[in-house]
Structures are given as structure tokens and as C-alpha cells.
Amino acid sequence: MKCKRFLSISILGVFLLIGFVYYTTVFIFIEDWVGLQSSAGSLNVIIFTFLVSLCFFSFFVCVLTDPGHVPASYVPDIEESGVPDEERRKNNVQSRHCDKCSTFKPPRAHHCRVCRRCVLRMDHHCIWINNCVGYWNYKAFFTLVLYATIGSIYSTVMIVACSLQKDWEFSERVSFKIFYVTSGVMMVALSLTLGTLLGWHIYLIIHNMTTIEVLGPNMLKWLCPTALSHLKDGLNFPTSRDRL
């Protein structure tokens, strides 16, 4: 059952982190800054709630979507005739045989020791979603990191804005000051971590795959983690030689 993937300490930690960030941002920082009953406060709550909802949606898609399994009937299609030895060696590298699964591995497929099977276009096994990031859920993972980064930066801005308008000189609540500083440091660190991860995957998309292959040809669907109609079987990928 795919729902069993949610029975994980790491996933529980993600839920607790998102819940903590949402609660403190909305009911402490926005409330303390402009008030939830004001138009500015309501607008910020709506925007932040929307970002958190997108994070949750992408997170659920990442966890529940099978990253891609190699069909048992898969056999690499290698043309023996008219192919130079050097080119043939390159093809053999791409069309490897997995000793653990006793099957051939398509290009970009790798064996995951945690999932105990080969995964199509495997990127890595992510403990935070208790699942592999592969061919069918890579887009959901990318949008998750994107929305989480935007949400973290948004929360950081709320903390800074709230801190700047407070009169700390006459404040007697030392514990509240510590809470503000701790929350600010945590959100800055989280924003930098997620931002770095987002930048890394943008770099990978640009250099290893076109945005059309990863996100789809329709720009309006780029940020939707379930818009996967552009994906094929994940067994073959175009190379520079195919375009000649």
C-alpha cells in the first residue's frame, strides 16, 4: 500500500515542520505585524495558505507516485551492424544489466538499495518523502522544492517585517525576543537550504534535460505536479546522435 509510506518518522517530521512554520507565521508574526483582521493581514494569510497548500499537494504527489519501474520484458535495442566499437561501448554502458534485479536497466535507470528495485531515471532516494525521486515523480519533487522555497522566503519576510515594527526597547518579554531570533535564524537557514537545492535542480534540468522533457511543453502546466501527459515510457531518451 502506498499509504504506508506515510508511516515514517521523517515524513512526520516534515508535517510537524510545515505545521510549525504555518502556525508561527500566521498566528504569531502576521498577527503581531498587521493583525489577522486587517485587509493586509488577511491578504498575507491567503497568499501564505495558498503556498502551503501547494507544498502539501506536491508533497503528497511525491510520496504516493511510483517513481517508475522497469518492465520485466524490457530488452535494450542495440544495433550491432554499422556501429563503431567506441560507440558500441557507449551503448553498452547505457544498457547495463542489473545483477540484483536480474534485468536490463534502461538509460538513466539505477538500482535503489532502499526500494530494492531499479527505478527509471532515478535521481536519488529521498528520506523526506520516503520514496525515490524518479521519472514519474521528479516534476512533483521539483515543484515541492520550488513552493517550499517561496514559502520559506515569504515566512522570513514576515518575521523581518514584524521585527522591524516592534518596539523592542520597552519589551519585557525576553523569552519572546529569543523566540523571534530563533525563528528568524531557522527560517533563513531553511530558505538558504531549499534555495540551494532548487538552484541545483534548475542547473540539472538545464544541463541534463530540456525543460520540455521535464516540465512539459505547456508553460501553463509547468507548476502543476500532476501534469504528466508529456511523459512517455521512460525507457528511451534522445541523444545528440539521434538528431544527426
TrEMBL record:
InterPro entries, per the entry: Palmitoyltrfase_DHHC, PFA4/ZDH16/20/ERF2-like
Reaction it catalyzes: L-cysteinyl-[protein] + hexadecanoyl-CoA = S-hexadecanoyl-L-cysteinyl-[protein] + CoA
Residue ranges annotated for the Palmitoyltransferase DHHC domain, each copy included: 93-214
Domain-related comment: The DHHC domain is required for palmitoyltransferase activity.
EC number: 2.3.1.225
Protein name: S-acyltransferase
A Pfam family that the UniProt record links to this protein: DHHC
Regions crossing the membrane: 7-30, 42-64, 144-166, 178-200
Record organism: Ziziphus jujuba var. spinosa
EC main group: transferase
MF annotations from Gene Ontology: protein-cysteine S-palmitoyltransferase activity
Family from the record: Belongs to the DHHC palmitoyltransferase family.
Bilayer topology annotation: Multi-pass membrane protein
Domain of life: Eukaryota
Subcellular location: Endomembrane system
Entry GO terms, CC: endomembrane system
Keywords attached to this entry: Acyltransferase, Membrane, Transferase, Transmembrane, Transmembrane helix
